[in-house]
Each structure stands twice: as C-alpha cells, then as structure tokens.
Amino acid sequence: MARRRKQLHLQRTGDNRRVRNPSLREALREADRRARQRANQRSWRRRGLTSVQSAIADSHYSQAQLGWFTRSVRILAGLALLPLCFITTISILNPHLHAGSEAGSGISFWLQFWRSSAFLYFSIGFILYAGWFFTRLLQPLFLYLYVLGHELTHVVFVYLCLGRVSGFRVSLDGGHIVTNKSNILIALSPYFVPFWAVVIFLLIALTGLLISIPHQEKILFFMIGVTWSFHLLWTLWIIPRDQPDLKENGTFFSLSLIYLSNVLLLSALVCLASPELTWRDFVYNWANNFMDVVTSVSTILD
Predict the structure, then answer these.
(1) Could you tell me the pTM of the whole model?
(2) Would you kindly state where each structural domain of the chain is located, as residue ranges?
C-alpha cells in the first residue's frame, strides 16, 4: 500500500527566520530518529498500514509529489468548487435572507437573528477566545489541545471510513496515528470539523438529559462560540505554514474544499440556532442564487 504522511507545521514565525547549522549531537540524534522512523515504516508497510503524522518541532518528511495529470485534475476540481463556494457564501450571508415563515412579511432573517440571545452569547464566546488567542497566554496548552483534536478527528474519520487505527501519539513535539486507510476526507477533516465544539455540544446535550442545567442554552452557545473561535483561529494560523496535508491532495483543491465545508458547517449552525431558518429555507435560497448566477453567466456569454 502506498505510504502517506501528514504533518502539522506549527512553528512560530520568528523561529522560521532563524536558520542555524545543527551541532554534531543534534545531527546524530536526528539521524537516529530517522533510522528508527524508517524501520517503523517498513514494519507498518509489511502490515499494510499508513503513517499519518503531525509535527510541531523542526521535522522534515519527504512527500511524494503529485503527478502532472493528478495535479491538473485536482486544480480543475478546485476551480469547479469556486462557484459553489461563492453561491453558498452569498446564500447564508445575504442580508436580505428570508425564512419561510417570514417570506411575505419583508422582515430580514439576519435582522432578527442578530438580536437573538443565541447570536449574542455565541459572539461573546467567540470574541473572548479571539482576544485570548492574540495574547498568546498559555499557548503551549492550547497548541497541545489543537493537535490532540486534530489527531482525534483523523481517528474518528478513519473509523467512519471503515478503517482501523493501530497507533496514536500526541505531544508538544507532534503526534501521529498509524492506520490502514487514508483518503481526502480523512486527510482534510481536521480543517473543517471543529472537534472541540462537537465535544462540548455532546457533553452539554447529554448532561441536560440527566440533570437540569440553569441557562443551558446560553451556556451552550457561549461555549460553541469559544470552541469555534479556537478551531477557526488555529486552522487559519497553521494553513499558511506549508501543510503537507494540503500538498498531497493539491493545495488549491484542498483550500477550496476546506472553505466550502466550513461555510456549510456555519450554515448548519445558523439553522440549528434559529428556529425561523430551516435547511429547507437555506436550500431554497441557495437554489435561487444558483439560478441567478447561471442566468447572469448566460447573459454575459450571449
């Protein structure tokens, strides 16, 4: 089975600017590490396994380059996703978006949603963590949590794809899972699935079934805001740092798919938070915008 590696570059910008020659001791330690890694990979290949890695420190892994045909197909697929990205974005962010129950009243859905308690508490949580993020306080702790969530997301999607995981490791120096399956969904899922937001949602929902939680809905939206901000900011922070996850699937295609997936998840959250807007309303608005785009393109071509 073809061997694939993924690494998560989480170096600080200042560290990237400092280049120095390694000492003899460091060179020997790196050579020993590489030798043991190659031995492990030979063992995994004999058992039909794949190494899926994330690294925080200065680690260098050789990545198989995509062939010109595969790269061309991925670029075309990325271009094909751009209209969908545009239509989905304007569908959910349209200031004149109307829910089905308000279609004849002329009342904007967003005008009501911005005044709702769900949006208020989500925004408070989002802004509070964003402020904390830029202070860099306890950055190693949050970095560890992000890498842990990154690897656990890989694990979840490996099992959803009917694969198996035979190794798992997370530390401040990096992490990896060993699996017998890898695909685009497994590789890119950590970039659009807010792992800790899902965990918080399940914990609060399950706890609410057992005991009565005062202000449960407000706490839920506040914590979703915190964890979604955590996911979004750390994801934006690592993507420009030369991620092999993106390269091995085609960087342009990967970024297009990640953006579209995140906008769809945001749309799902808005539909969940607002009883006035359902998926049926969103799909209806999306279809109208799609036809408007098609009509506009046809007019330009004619």
Answers:
(1) 0.73
(2) 13-301
